[in-house]
Predict the 3D structure of the following.
Amino acid sequence: MLALGLWGLDRGGMWRDEAVTFQVARRTVPQIWRLLHGVDAVHGLYYLLMHAVLALHPGEVLLRLPSVCAAALATGLVAALGTRLARPRVGLWAGLLYAVTPMVGHYAQEGRSYALVAAGAAGATLLLVRAVPAGGRTWWAYGAVLGVTCWLHELAVLLLLAHAGTLALARVPAGVWRGWGRAAGAVTLALLPMVVVSHAQSAQLAWVREPTMETAGALLREFAGPTSGVYWACLALAALGLTGLVGGRGEVTCAGVALPLAVVPPTVLMLASRLTPLYVDRYVLYALAGAPLLVAAGADRVAELLGRTGRTSRTTGPLGPLGPLGPLGPLGRVRPGNPRVRSPLLTLAGVLAVALAFVHQLPVLRQDRSPDHRPDNLAAMSTDAARELRPGDPVLFLPSHARSTALAYPAGFRGIRDVALAAGAPASGTLYGREVDPDLLCRRLAGLDRVWVVAERRFARSPWYPGDPTDRAKLDVVRDRFALREERARDGVVLRLYVRRTLATGSLTRPVRLRPGRW
């Protein structure tokens, strides 16, 4: 996992969410604290952690390195879970399969908190498994780890429901329920302040859409493997892994941990999103750890059947169990049929199967390390802006969060005049700065003959109409009083030059002159 995480880590550009982490983490602690009162409280602990990390050296590699390390830690914890709940080869297979899953690799290389949340969830699950037979002496550690994980992202609290399902399947005694209940209550109480603050900031999720059956199918494919061959093989093995779902009373099984972990958090979040849309696949990345555990448990069942078949063939000759080639050899010694004879070969076969899955998914993993595979590439847009913009050029950002390009890569926008800006992002305690009111914006634009617009692609779609009054004023003035002269497009961002219609030469419907280049 560490090797896959470091492969292509410096992909040459941040996308919008990473740029937010980068520019917020470089603020002072009082500035970050002020920001969290108005927006992004759910990521507050992560921003403070990254503030300390980026103080060493502000760069893209260091921005993503904590996620790489967290993914490596999560992989080891998944392997430890498989080893404790079943046997070492199950842990080995589960850890390797987790490491080569493209969704894990994607968020291992992203400067956001999701890989850290996944590591914390895997650690809390391992502590739960250890606490059940220990009589509850380690519940304090379980509560502490889960509490920190929930403060990294509050939707990790759904892990409590998955763990309750595990305890119910294990039919643990009342004492275990009491210990777990106290720890779960402490986690919930510690999370309440964040819940209250983040609820007031729920407008941030206005872009989230209600999940559908296609959404659930897409998540299943992300968990089991995006390529068809790996997907169907993993589903078949996971179904076999469910055979040991319920063990003896008080016994926690591998399937009893993996199934609730993989199913409960995404299902609950999707159902809750029928009322208020909250579901995004990365919010339940931590649930993915259950999928490789189920697949490895199913592979172990297959290995047991193969081993049993091999032992039977070794102890039964062509003349029956008492024949000369049966259990008594030619010298009268008993043929032991030791299961360990084939165990290393079966373990190696499982490792090779995971290696085959890795090779099958290698094109997906390679594509994911390209900056063009992210929603946008702000570094490339900043490079384009540096070629076109000159000091003093007026620029509009539409909508306002398109300003993240200039905040993350200011070199391309040095000296420009931000027409709509009233106060910078750090000074105003916002993510993208505070903008002027629509009337003042119109007065500022009235004196301009040309203006550059940095916009999202949806700006080019006429039905789109922003909800913010200042963004609406930008759109109305640009469309009514200016004519498009030229455009540069880069992934999800466009750079456009508009000139006032009275100065535009020729027809107002003249075609856009697209500049050549690798874009």
The longest strand covers residues 482-490.
